[in-house]
């Protein structure tokens, strides 16, 4: 929910997300839940019941959440609904996420960014607390996002530089290469690293990754607190 990358590899599309959070909010391993009649697989946040990373198994839809929009915002004392629950509403809807986004009511929802992959297309959706935006992205390019709530513009630019350098050195990265990149610490500044650590309690606690192939979707989830990894594979993905 705090660092997300998108890379089109030889094996398929790979979307990888680091969750930077308090250790007490460690989530359960992904499970498949029936939402709006659809199987949706995601790790559930123990506090609000939502998620930061979900896949719609049968249709190859992936939605990933980052806290905040383009700039850091001032938090309100309370919000109407968790952003992780908004994600689940959108991914389980009958219509495409971007179509539902146009109508979805976000009043009194905290700002956030969604990375959406569906129907072989990639989108960035943003809510800044006042207005929505949709940006259609080139699926042949590679992208990295870092949450504005945790990382300054300078740190986000530095992380983009590390990502660019990684891709130059790894022209055909595998899904595992991208996991290792998300586990890397390129600097002595623990607060800027991909394996971030602000305090012993606030740090990168898990990495979740989707690998989307022509007719298969794979979900990898690594719990960094216990160094446990699980892989889930779903067949017959429809685009």
Which labels suit this protein?
13 strands, single chain, 4 helices, alpha+beta, 239 residues, 6-stranded antiparallel β-sheet, 7-stranded antiparallel β-sheet
Number of helices: 4
What is the arithmetic mean of pLDDT? 94
Low-confidence stretches: none
Order of the strands making up the biggest sheet: 3-4-5-6-7-8-9
Question: Total strand count, please?
Answer: 13
Please give a structural write-up:
The chain is built from four helices and 13 strands. The protein is of the alpha+beta class and 239 residues long. Strand 12 and strand 13 form a beta hairpin. The model has no long low-confidence stretch (mean pLDDT 94).
Short précis:
The protein has 239 residues and is an alpha+beta fold. It has helices spanning 83-91, 97-103, 153-169, 175-182, and strands at 3-9, 12-22, 31-35, 38-42, 53-56, 61-67, 112-118, 121-127, 132-137, 143-146, 202-212, 216-223, 228-235. The strands form two sheets. Strands 3-4-5-6-7-8-9 form a seven-stranded antiparallel sheet, covered by helices on one side. Strands 10-1-2-11-12-13 form a six-stranded antiparallel sheet, with helices on one face.
Topology (SSEs and partners):
Blueprint: E1 3-9, E2 12-22, E3 31-35, E4 38-42, E5 53-56, E6 61-67, H1 83-91, H2 97-103, E7 112-118, E8 121-127, E9 132-137, E10 143-146, H3 153-169, H4 175-182, E11 202-212, E12 216-223, E13 228-235
